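dumping this here so i dont lose it
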């Protein structure tokens, strides 16, 4: 994972939940973590990591994830075993 992906991961786990994370940054983070990302119908994006599956709706037209999407991404990552380290 590169530094930009680490910054995105840290933002996802920030409280209060941010509403200004670019969707492309979340997808790049997924790729850095080894998440399988496939395009579904319409704006659906299917993801899978460590036997955990989720479906997200790619935000449009703004291309910025709202708080609900960020919360769902956080829950997916936690369920897949991804969290911030102790020192982060």
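and the seq i came up w/
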């Amino acid at each position: 994972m590169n530094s930009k992906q680490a910054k995105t991961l840290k933002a996802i786990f920030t409280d209060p939940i941010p509403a200004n994370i670019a969707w492309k940054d979340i997808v790049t983070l997924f790729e850095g973590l080894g998440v399988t990302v496939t395009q579904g119908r319409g704006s659906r994006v299917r993801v899978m990591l460590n036997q955990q599956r989720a479906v997200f709706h790619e935000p449009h037209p703004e291309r910025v994830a709202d708080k609900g999407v960020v919360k769902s991404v956080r829950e997916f990552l936690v369920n897949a075993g991804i969290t911030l380290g102790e020192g982060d």
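The beta strands are 21-22, 36-39, 44-49, 52-57, 64-65.
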